[in-house]
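Need tokens for this chain, all 197 residues.
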Amino acid sequence: MTIEIPEAIRKQYEEFKIVRRALREESDRGCALFAAAYLDTALEALLKASFVEGRKAEGELFEGTAPLSSFSAKIKLAYFLGIISDQCRRDLDTIRKIRNDFAHDATIISFETRSIADRCHNLGFSCHEPEGPPRGHFTAAASGILGKLHALTVKAERPPIKPDDRPSEEEKEAGRKQAIEALAVELAKCGFNGKGS
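Here are the structure tokens for all 197 residues:
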């Protein structure tokens, strides 16, 4: 019996294999930078899959200095929209901070550097034994989160665009008439009759 695998899932699986291979073969610095970059891309794909139908969000939200151009902003939005869990948010933030350590520290650091190792051992998505190597925890957590983001992307349902809900010309006219009548009542209570009194 052959099972038909949807194209999107097959593509994600192929990408996942490439990512796992790259995480194994890269230097510690390369591993941290690559994992964070790929998780950033996967999170962006999940957010785009959750946005309204028929709209292109790339330029307005994700490019250049747009509101969701940073990994941090994407993590926050996904969490506050209820798309990812608190633990996923914490692990993504930890991976982002580890990436920043590797990217902005000119000294030679590795996953064995105490501050990085401690954070790696606290990654909730890691399935490694607690005493396992920090890099193992990092790559396991990154892989687990990537799998979670891929699954959520496949299951995401784009909401429809809200219909035009502005008032019709008749509703606007009725609203103006009602406001004028209410104002006339209030003015009458104050003794103003509209005849210069």
